[in-house]
Amino acid sequence: MRKKRQVLRRSGFVRLTEADVLTSLFGLPATFFAASNCRNSLLSSVRYWETAMKRLSVFILLWLVVFHLSPAYSQTVEINKKNAEMDSSGSTRSKIAPNAGEKHLMEPSSNGSAVDTSSNPLGLEWVWVEGGTFKMGCTAEQSNCYDNEKPVHEVYVDGFYISRYEVTVAQFAQFVKETGYKTDAEKEGYSWVLEKGKWNVKNGIDWRYNGRNEIRPKSEYNHPVIHVSWNDASAFCSWLSKKTGTAVRLPTEAEWEYAARGGRKSHGFKFAGGNNADSVAWYWYNSKGNTHPVGQKKPNELGLYDMSGNVYEWCLDWYDDSYYGKSARKNPMGPSSGFYRVLRGGSWSSGANELRVSIRTPGRVVTTNSSYGFRLRKAR
């Protein structure tokens, strides 16, 4: 059965379609209409339909359990309900212009006049990623791939700097202190949180909270910031660009994957830095329900930390499920428009499969939850 990622997925959940269950588990389309085998006698026909009705009853029962009682289904329903309420009420979170807040995405001029690498007010560590060509998508070591990771295609990216760590709570707090910025979660008064294995909307949650839905103590300010939307991450980049005179933005999806794979130093690992999830990532089975300080797990070949796990990382690109079939070969920037942006890397709330370097996740530009964060990219 071909795997297909549901477009409306949130925070690592993948919702199976009803057709998937119907076709793969019971084969009903094949058996239900194979009446030709039973036409020889009334008795065999009765037995056939009796068996078919029993299978249908089992299917209906499982359909109710899987699609109306599961956490993934409940979360999708709540998201759709909340989004519908926002759309009908005129909420700003449902009416973000496709290209809002993107003026900062321009690269510095060719003479380098916009670049000043000497200024580093946040103590950021930058790692140079030498440009090169790589195979992007569901390569041989990437098991259990989804359709949106295919086809594998060759991509070239120019060299760039990427932050060694994800942006921390302390760094985001400095941004808020200097600008008075209000995040999307603060404007709307809620964010998505994980409680008892289920994703729910919770009022009053913003970037000051941790994965356990508690106000972060100062001792956790070295954790990656969460409950930030794509808009919030882009606003941070814009502020830092003006503050330092260096063009800072989110990495493109291609840049992110190239760096996560280790660039020219890649060893072809499944995750960023290795094939063992526990050694390189904070995820569902070792995170104990919260983010962790950046830089504690094993880095990848370039010395980058937490590109698998801890928090999902926003990328610059618009999301397109089938983009890989039409991607540019050199420095792809993603589709020109869309409804979702790209998230990469998995998080503290993810299973191991969500930590793979090729996996792609869509998210609305205004969506915030306890597993979304970001890291930075700048030109040379």
CATH top level of the largest domain?
Alpha Beta
CATH architecture of the largest domain: Alpha-Beta Complex
**First and last CA, distance:** 45 Å
Spans of at least 5 consecutive residues with low confidence: 1-43, 63-118
| Approximate helicity band | 25-40%
Strand content: 5-15%
Quote the average pLDDT. 80
Strand order, biggest sheet? 1-4-12-7
H/E series? HHHHEEEEHHEEHEHHEEEEE
Shape: globular
Counting structural domains, the number is 2
* Count of helix runs: 9
The CATH superfamily of the largest domain turns out to be paralog of FGE (formylglycine-generating enzyme)
* Count of strand segments: 12
CATH topology of the largest domain: paralog of FGE (formylglycine-generating enzyme)
Sheet with the most strands, sense and barrel status: 4 strands, antiparallel
Class derived from helix and strand content: alpha+beta
Radius of gyration: 23 Å
Oligomer: single chain
Task: Summarize this structure briefly.
The protein has helices at 18-26, 28-32, 42-68, 71-89, 169-179, 184-188, 230-244, 253-260, 277-280; strands at 126-129, 132-136, 153-157, 160-163, 190-195, 198-203, 248-249, 312-318, 340-344, 361-364, 372-373, 377-378. The protein is an alpha+beta fold and 380 residues long. The chain has two domains: 1-99, no CATH class; 105-378, paralog of FGE (formylglycine-generating enzyme).
